[in-house]
Amino acid sequence: MTEDEAYKVHIQYTFNAFCKVVIRHAAIDIILKLRRRWEREVSLDYLMNEKFVQLAEPEQLEEYLFTACGQTAVLYHAELAAALALLPEQTQEEIFRYYFLRQPQRVIGVHIGRTRSTAGRHIQLALKRLRRLMEGKRYE
């Protein structure tokens, strides 16, 4: 192997090592970003926890209609339905689209004319507001 070929091989190995490091750090960044996002999100399941809502017996379940985006969802929890009704219309639509229509935040952001991250932040704030409303009713 000539000196020139050895230098080309060395450059190729160096470049490959550089690419592996860059890809590894990009993966770590994505993992950390997802972890931060998961820590910030408040799950609707958390709001439905027995701490906030006492479940009725099966024969005592009443249906409450939640209408947004021209569609209707059936809820079986009076406190959640009342708390959702107190939210502004745009916030109701964002919650409906995210949890009932299962639309990604990017699509919701396009619908409200904002970025994906802004839509995610709106949903996060709406869930915190719902939690406060439900906690307030619980202890009144």
TrEMBL record:
It comes from the Bacteria. InterPro entries: RNA_pol_sigma_r3/r4-like, WH-like_DNA-bd_sf. This is Sigma-70 family RNA polymerase sigma factor. It comes from Anaerostipes butyraticus.
